[in-house]
Amino acid sequence: MNAVIIKELTKKYGNIVAVNNLNLTIEQGELFALLGVNGAGKTTTIKMLSCLIKPTSGDAFLLGESIISNPHSINEKTNISPQETAVAANLSVLENLELIAGIYGQNSKTANKNAHEIAQKFGLKNELNKKAKNLSGGMQRRLSIAMALISEPQILFLDEPTLGLDVLARRELWASIKSLKGKVTIILTTHYMDEVENLSDRVGIMANGQLTTVGTVTELTMQTNTAKLEDAFIVLSGGVL
Ligand SMILES: Nc1ncnc2c1ncn2[C@@H]1O[C@H](COP(=O)(O)OP(=O)(O)OP(=O)(O)O)[C@@H](O)[C@H]1O
């Protein structure tokens, strides 16, 4: 079954066409990685799909609901961990998690139970009483994703989830993301090719607001006659090897 159907989605900022006539279908439980050089249109796409900004034209259907006519319904079933880590600095880890659970309508008992469960899953169990501002950057990214997940979304958007993390923190976060595969539909943007190779079921490459290529890592390397995704990406983004 399809979780996401994108139809001719376009976003213009004045003369700039940030996203240009995007068409794409993503299956339920799939982890889809969106790649592209800086300014290609990835974040704008994710922001439209998560109903943070309105498209100029076109539409997208998430779990059958339109981002134009039913954004509230989509907000109940999806969540985003944005590029800027979105945690309340002066609240503890537990309070941050319970806050989001409360916003999504969970009573305090359920919110507390879910907060403890998700903290366990994301290696945050020993940090529950720490203020978010005193966590390391890696722990803050983890908390940000845990906060997106506590609402039990069916679709999760991860915008550069491991940006600025050290190798160990990145690997730990990959393991947490991998444990969601097949259960939650995930759309992820990243500049790290090893992340895509490790996590994604399919990859889409954007250039100048357009989705130029969609396929598995193997399909992309075969298509470009290259040995690894990084080389395939350079070829497909119009660069020189
Ligand atoms: N609020 C805005 N106002 C004007 N132009 C914008 C706005 N947001 C994005 N853009 C422009 O839209 C284009 C696409 O930007 P977007 O942030 O979606 O790219 P991206 O692929 O996510 O880049 P990065 O990898 O650097 O995060 C860029 O030319 C950018 O300058």
Automatic annotation (TrEMBL):
<dbReference type="InterPro" id="IPR050763">
    <property type="entry name" value="ABC_transporter_ATP-binding"/>
</dbReference>
<keyword id="KW-0067">ATP-binding</keyword>
<protein>
    <recommendedName>
        <fullName>ABC transporter domain-containing protein</fullName>
    </recommendedName>
</protein>
<dbReference type="InterPro" id="IPR003593">
    <property type="entry name" value="AAA+_ATPase"/>
</dbReference>
<keyword id="KW-0547">Nucleotide-binding</keyword>
<dbReference type="GO" id="GO:0005524">
    <property type="term" value="F:ATP binding"/>
</dbReference>
<dbReference type="Pfam" id="PF00005">
    <property type="entry name" value="ABC_tran"/>
</dbReference>
<dbReference type="GO" id="GO:0016887">
    <property type="term" value="F:ATP hydrolysis activity"/>
</dbReference>
<dbReference type="InterPro" id="IPR027417">
    <property type="entry name" value="P-loop_NTPase"/>
</dbReference>
<dbReference type="InterPro" id="IPR003439">
    <property type="entry name" value="ABC_transporter-like_ATP-bd"/>
</dbReference>
<feature type="domain" description="ABC transporter">
    <location>
        <begin position="4"/>
        <end position="233"/>
    </location>
</feature>
<dbReference type="InterPro" id="IPR017871">
    <property type="entry name" value="ABC_transporter-like_CS"/>
</dbReference>
<comment type="similarity">
    <text>Belongs to the ABC transporter superfamily.</text>
</comment>
<keyword id="KW-0813">Transport</keyword>
